[in-house]
């Protein structure tokens, strides 16, 4: 039997300025019927480009320069627009990374859902609506009868992602391409979406290409895994073989990333004065209360990780500490002395002591200033250094963050990679010579290898300079790697707090337990086990039926 | 009735041509992807373009269509000039400039060429112009073209106006007056609107409310009528002093136009204020000056510069309109708007004496070419700034 999708020696080029540079270099890919293939790699590896090429589609400014893509015997590269049109949406479907950005906000979900079946003449509108509701049931969306009649903004992110999967399923395609469908979701939501996707793909025997950078996720979803690096295939193997015996060095390094873990520092003495204490802080945006009675301490030289899902008030806590959002009640103390609530009332020295590093390095660095200007400004502002001494200090800071001053001093942020930008963000914070640095999801936008480098750098700087960190994150692997103490937040309250080792050993608070157990593990059976433990009834039965 | 018949018949013929042409192209090319994937709408567009070219050729052949032939020739000359200019830019000058020229579309090259030419003419008007702008030189109503057989005079290549002033000289001085004043006015409008708009974006709160509502009030009144009203009042204060009157005009137009700049600067500024790097600067304790001029302004520069080009055109047209209406630049100073008004009645001769009717068209053409040129440059700059973002 011919495979469903067969890509042979595919070359893809992208255009920048006048030149064409390679994106995919002669990659082969074969996908059997009912098979799920995982595509993994760092950003820029060409995963998404390859995924789109499987549909015979390339983005603007990109061209296929060689090779073939055959879907069920049909050559997609040379197929006419008409032929492709009859396939896309009907036999090949696509699920994008951000469902929230991919749904048209002006139309109800159901109207967007029925579009493909009605246009392709698979079903009429009535049938399609009924079918949609059935799919919503299967994907375990809450309130499946009505959810389709809402607008995208009235539905949560995880639900939208499932609605999009339902939409891709609407014509019962032979192939679905999932492009990082859970990357933007919280761990607890991710579980539901993963389970729903896997379940429905199994049920209809659909083939799928699952693109992600998260190894643990792909381990749950894929039968086979293909690793890409800068447009080249590194290796391909079945999931179990790949997890147990990765052949190539690069694959091993990907696997090893999660190995970084810092030992917890000894607990502070009883008379240690916390460098920062958040004391019974309540804060609100207008009428809506977002923080209630939040209290925790950060002791000198230690790292406190604040964990929780999006909307749990982690970042709001940071805004209260920095003075961007004056609290409604409670106080923030720095070395025992209360800080004025608003940043405008704080002295220059108080501002200097607490610095922030942001999640999105792209928006955190002024794109029109050179690296030397970005780092030099706080140095000059706080210490008044000028001329040669300022330049020497900037070079020293660049060396601290492991960037060569001669190369990077005069570059603009746009000429740097994501990891390098994040390092510049760290240097800008260090330039103020602070005591406490607030790291707001600093690694969540980065690839795992790069993120690990940033974490190691932060750990080294802490040892050298005696800094304290408040580490805001939703990623428990990061917490495990770097934290000394953990504060778990949910809906604006602190649910549980304590030293890291205590937090990671049972018994847990039920919510902490839910968070911890939702972190995907590098074990292909993990999702099955977890679902069995949580007793998701329907899924277990269906899996049994298939046996 | 018969007009409608011809229009519909022509459309049907074009539609049929598109259908047949598409079929033939597919057959002849052996179903090449280019024609295979071409939709009927695109084919119709090609057929329409073909029909337009055919109509153009037919019109060119007609003996009476003097202006059409001039327009086509003018267009060709402009295109060639722009091409040569770009070619020169690609091979002369520093490397960074050459790189700019290499990526430049022809329209932008034309725009830049026009701006340079106008700037040179405006700055060196005193040396270039053969006569003074106010000099009355005897013979009135000399026809442009300089051909004595047609009523022209080689001494006045573009003829003279009703009281015998040289039109060429007045056109050259008009560049100085009209363009110079427009430039000054736009600069002032930008300084005012840009600074206040960014300030409103950074400070927010009541200051933003007061400024924005004030701007709303000014914008609610039709701008040309508002300017006319204010100028009428100002002319009483000026008591006939010509310099003072011009100053008032600049101030009034600058204030009215600064409202549009304010809106843009505020909108762009609000998008930048929420960026983390501005937050970082605020948390550092930076003052308002640093925030506005170092963090926000450099990032707002691209849209503001593009708006500067557009605003310049509008200001320029406003001054020309006001002068046409008689309250702008006061005679005997040469100004393109005033010149159009003074020479307007010659347009009636267009049907039988094309050369005579050229007189009022020349200042109008000067306005049009500059406006088009500036817009080309603005389009290119907008395209570049949006391309940088992605």
From TrEMBL, chain A:
Pfam families (UniProt xref): ABC_tran, oligo_HPY
Similarity remark: Belongs to the ABC transporter superfamily.
Top-level taxon of the source organism: Bacteria
GO molecular function: ATP binding; ATP hydrolysis activity
PROSITE patterns recorded: ABC_TRANSPORTER_1, ABC_TRANSPORTER_2
Coiled coil: none
InterPro entries: AAA+_ATPase, ABC_Ni/Peptide_Import, ABC_transporter-like_ATP-bd, ABC_transporter-like_CS, Oligopep_ABC_C, P-loop_NTPase
Entry's localization field: Cell inner membrane
Keywords: ATP-binding, Cell inner membrane, Cell membrane, Membrane, Nucleotide-binding, Translocase, Transport
SUPFAM superfamilies: P-loop containing nucleoside triphosphate hydrolases (SSF52540)
Protein name per its UniProtKB record: Alpha-glucoside transport ATP-binding protein AglK
Organism in which the protein naturally occurs: Limimaricola hongkongensis DSM 17492
Gene Ontology biological process terms in this record: peptide transport
Bilayer topology annotation: Peripheral membrane protein
GO cellular component, one term: plasma membrane
Automatic annotation (TrEMBL), chain B:
Entry keywords, A to Z: Cell membrane, Membrane, Transmembrane, Transmembrane helix, Transport
BP GO annotations: transmembrane transport
ABC transmembrane type-1 domain residues: 175-373
Pfam family, one: BPD_transp_1
Membrane-spanning ranges: 6-26, 38-61, 67-85, 106-129, 181-205, 217-238, 244-262, 308-329, 349-382
Membrane topology category: Multi-pass membrane protein
Gene3D superfamilies named in the record: MetI-like
Gene Ontology CC annotation, any one: plasma membrane
Subcellular location: Cell membrane
Protein name: ABC transporter, membrane spanning protein
Family classification: Belongs to the binding-protein-dependent transport system permease family.
């Amino acid at each position: 039997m011919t495979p469903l999708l067969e890509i042979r020696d595919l070359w893809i080029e992208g255009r920048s300025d006048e030149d064409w540079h390679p994106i995919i270099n002669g990659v082969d890919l074969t996908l059997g019927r009912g098979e799920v293939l995982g595509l993994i790699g760092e950003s820029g590896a060409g995963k998404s480009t390859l995924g789109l090429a499987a549909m015979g589609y390339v983005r603007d400014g990109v061209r296929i320069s060689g090779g073939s893509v055959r879907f069920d015997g049909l050559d997609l590269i040379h197929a006419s627009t008409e032929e492709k049109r009859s396939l896309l949406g009907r036999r090949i479907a696509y699920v994008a990374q951000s469902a929230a950005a991919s749904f048209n906000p002006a139309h109800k979900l159901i109207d967007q859902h029925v579009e493909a079946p009605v246009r392709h003449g698979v079903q009429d509108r009535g049938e399609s609506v009924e079918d949609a509701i059935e799919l919503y049931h299967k994907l375990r969306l809450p309130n499946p009868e009505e959810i389709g009649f809402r607008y995208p903004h009235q539905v949560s992110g995880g639900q939208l992602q499932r609605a999009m999967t339902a939409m891709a399923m609407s014509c019962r395609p032979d192939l679905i391409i999932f492009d990082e469908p859970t990357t933007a979701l919280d761990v607890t939501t991710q579980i539901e979406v993963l389970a729903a996707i896997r379940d429905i793909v199994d049920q209809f025997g659909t083939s799928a290409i699952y693109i992600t950078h998260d190894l643990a996720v792909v381990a749950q979803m894929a039968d086979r895994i293909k690793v890409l690096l800068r447009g080249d295939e590194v290796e391909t193997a079945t999931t179990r073989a790949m997890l147990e015996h990765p052949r190539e060095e690069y694959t091993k390094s990907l696997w090893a990333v999660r190995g970084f873990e810092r030992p917890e520092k000894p607990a502070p003495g009883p008379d240690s004065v916390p460098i920062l204490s958040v004391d019974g802080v309540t804060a609100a945006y207008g009428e809506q209360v977002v923080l209630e009675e939040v209290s925790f301490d950060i002791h000198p030289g230690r790292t406190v990780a604040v964990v929780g899902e999006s909307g749990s008030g982690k970042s709001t806590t940071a805004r209260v500490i920095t003075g961007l959002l004056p609290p409604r009640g409670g106080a923030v103390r720095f070395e025992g002395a209360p800080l004025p609530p608003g940043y405008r009332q704080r002295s220059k020295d108080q501002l200097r002591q607490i610095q922030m590093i942001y999640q999105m390095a792209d928006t955190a660095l002024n794109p029109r200033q050179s690296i030397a200007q970005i780092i030099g400004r706080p140095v000059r502002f706080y210490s008044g250094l000028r001329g040669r001494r300022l330049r020497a200090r900037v070079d020293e800071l660049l060396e601290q963050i492991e960037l060569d001053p001669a190369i990077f001093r005069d570059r603009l942020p746009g000429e740097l990679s994501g990891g390098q930008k994040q390092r510049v963000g760290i240097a800008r914070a260090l330039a103020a010579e602070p005591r406490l640095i607030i790291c707001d999801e600093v690694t969540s936008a980065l690839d795992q290898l790069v993120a690990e480098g940033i974490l190691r750098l932060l750990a080294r700087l802490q040892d050298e300079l005696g800094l304290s960190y408040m580490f805001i994150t939703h990623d428990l692997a990061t917490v495990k790697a770097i934290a000394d103490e953990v504060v778990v937040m949910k809906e604006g309250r602190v649910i549980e707090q304590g030293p890291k080792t205590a937090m990671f050993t049972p018994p847990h608070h039920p919510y902490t337990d839910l968070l911890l157990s939702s972190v995907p593990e590098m074990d292909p059976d993990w999702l099955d086990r977890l679902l069995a433990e949580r007793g998701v009834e329907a899924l277990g039965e269906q899996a049994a039926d298939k046996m | 009735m018969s007009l409608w018949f011809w229009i519909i018949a022509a459309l049907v013929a074009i539609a049929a041509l598109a259908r047949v042409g598409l079929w033939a192209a597919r057959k002849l090319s052996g179903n090449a992807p280019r024609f295979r994937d071409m939709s009927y709408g695109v084919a119709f567009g090609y057929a329409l373009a073909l029909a337009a070219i055919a109509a153009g050729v037919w019109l060119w052949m007609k003996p009476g269509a003097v202006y059409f032939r001039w327009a086509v020739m003018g267009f060709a000359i402009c295109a060639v000039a722009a091409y040569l200019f770009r070619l020169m830019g690609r091979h002369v000058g520093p490397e960074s400039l050459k790189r700019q020229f290499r990526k430049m579309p022809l329209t932008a090259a034309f725009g830049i060429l026009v701006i340079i030419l106008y700037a040179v003419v405006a700055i060196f008007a005193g040396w270039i112009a053969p006569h003074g702008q106010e000099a009355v030189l005897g013979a009135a109503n000399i026809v442009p073209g300089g051909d004595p057989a047609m009523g022209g005079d080689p001494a006045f290549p573009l003829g003279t106006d009703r009281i015998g002033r040289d039109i060429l000289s007045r056109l050259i001085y008009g560049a100085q007056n009209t363009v110079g004043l427009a430039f000054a006015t736009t600069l002032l409008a930008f300084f005012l609107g840009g600074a206040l708009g960014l300030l409103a974006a950074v400070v927010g709160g009541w200051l933003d409310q007061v400024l924005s509502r004030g701007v709303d009030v000014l914008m609610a009144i039709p701008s040309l009528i508002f300017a006319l009203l204010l100028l009428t009042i100002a002319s009483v204060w000026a008591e006939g002093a010509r310099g003072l009157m011009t100053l008032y005009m600049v101030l009034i137009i600058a204030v009215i136009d600064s409202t549009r700049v304010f809106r843009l600067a505020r909108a762009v500024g609000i998008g930048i204020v929420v960026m983390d790097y501005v937050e970082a600067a605020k948390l550092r304790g930076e003052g308002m000056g640093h925030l506005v001029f170092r963090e926000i302004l450099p990032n707002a520069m691209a849209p503001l510069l593009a708006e500067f080009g557009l605003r310049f055109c509008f200001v320029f047209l406003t001054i020309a309109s006001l002068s046409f209406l008689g309250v702008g630049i006061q005679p005997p100073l040469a100004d393109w708007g005033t010149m159009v008004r003074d020479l307007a009645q010659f347009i009636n001769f267009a049907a039988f004496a094309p050369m005579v009717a050229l007189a009022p068209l020349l200042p109008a053409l000067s306005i049009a070419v500059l406006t088009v040129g500036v817009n080309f440059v603005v389009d290119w700059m907008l395209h570049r700034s949006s391309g940088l973002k992605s």
